[in-house]
Amino acid sequence: MDEVKIVVAHSERATLRVGDVFLKVDTDQVRIDAEVEAMAAVPVPTPEILWRKPPVLAIAAVPGATLGRLGEPSTASPAAWASAGAAIRTLHDAPLPVRVGRAGRGLDELRAELDGECELLVAKGLLPADLVTRNRQVAEAALRPWTPAFTHGDLQIAHVFVDGDSDEVTGIIDWSEAGRGDALYDLATFTLGHEEHLDEVLVGYGADVDLDVIHAWWSLRSLLGVRWLLEHGFDAFAPGCEVDVLKSRM
């Protein structure tokens, strides 16, 4: 019998692996609907959907291996990072979906959320005030008008798989936050904690981008993530993770 492995689990959702099948358990059907719709629409490799019985979505494992994980050095080649950049560009050039994704929140809403989170981080003693203030200043560059693109919305490097021999992308997983959004949000999420690979990604992406905006999204995403991560059992203070990303902007 195949072993049941808990991939990730918190109060909002859980993902289990049984052999080559992943079972995603999520009571928020809007997220599951968004994931299914996105995987059917995007012009990049995605997992095969095996079956769906709310609140469970069963998908097949994709071949290859991830480029790495946040907080760990990546052993992937420059060609693999460039290949990922090319796949991200293909996604961003796809016809726009109807849904607004996580990367497409309104600027007023995002600014209010960010300011509230910064106040809480300091009030609760989670981060020093000067660290929060500096990164809030950096984050402001992300709060500008942007041209909508088809975005993944949670494009962590652990969600992108590549073939070890060809360095080609074999699959991109976890599409529940997909929809219209800011393309630079995806690029920043993908390179968060792996700044040294940004140039390689942009070689494959093949377009000029505003680096100040990517730096701003690194700060913004980290500021919004620290408290949630700590409250859900993740260590944002681990080497190379969100708090180190914030410190790198000082």
Helix and strand topology:
Elements lengths: L3 E6 L3 E6 L2 E6 L2 H13 L7 E5 L2 E5 L4 E2 L11 H15 L14 H17 L5 H11 L8 E4 L8 E3 L6 E4 L6 E4 H9 L6 H8 L5 H21 L10 H6 L3
Antiparallel strand pairs: 1-2, 2-3, 3-5, 4-5, 6-8, 7-10, 8-9
Query: Order of SSEs, N→C?
Result: EEEHEEEHHHEEEEHHHH
Number of domain modules: 1
The H-level CATH homologous superfamily, spelled out, is Aminoglycoside phosphotransferase (APH), C-terminal lobe
- Named at the architecture level, the CATH assignment is Alpha-Beta Complex
State the helix count.
8
CATH topology: Aminoglycoside 3'-phosphotransferase, Chain: A, domain 2
User: What is the radius of gyration?
Assistant: 18 Å
Largest sheet: 5 strands, antiparallel
Task: Summarize model confidence as the mean pLDDT.
Answer: 94
Question: What strand order characterises the main sheet?
Answer: 1-2-3-5-4
Instruction: Give the overall silhouette.
Output: globular
Helix coverage percent:
40-55%
Terminal residue distance: 51 Å
| Overall SS class | alpha+beta
**Low-pLDDT ranges:** none
Query: How many strand elements?
Result: 10
CATH first level: which class? Alpha Beta
Strand content: 15-25%
Protein name: Phosphotransferase
Domain Aminoglycoside phosphotransferase: 34-208
Organism: Streptomyces atriruber
Pfam families: APH (PF01636)
Structure, described:
The relative contact order is 0.17. The mean pLDDT is 94. It contains 8 helices and 10 strands. The protein has a single domain, classed as Aminoglycoside 3'-phosphotransferase, Chain: A, domain 2, CATH 3.90.1200. The radius of gyration is 18 Å and the shape is globular. Strand 4 and strand 5 (56-60) form a beta hairpin. The N and C termini lie far apart (51 Å). It has a 5-stranded antiparallel beta sheet. A 3-stranded antiparallel beta sheet has the order 6-8-9, with helices on one face. The protein is an alpha+beta fold and 250 residues long. Helix 2 packs across helix 6 (198-205).
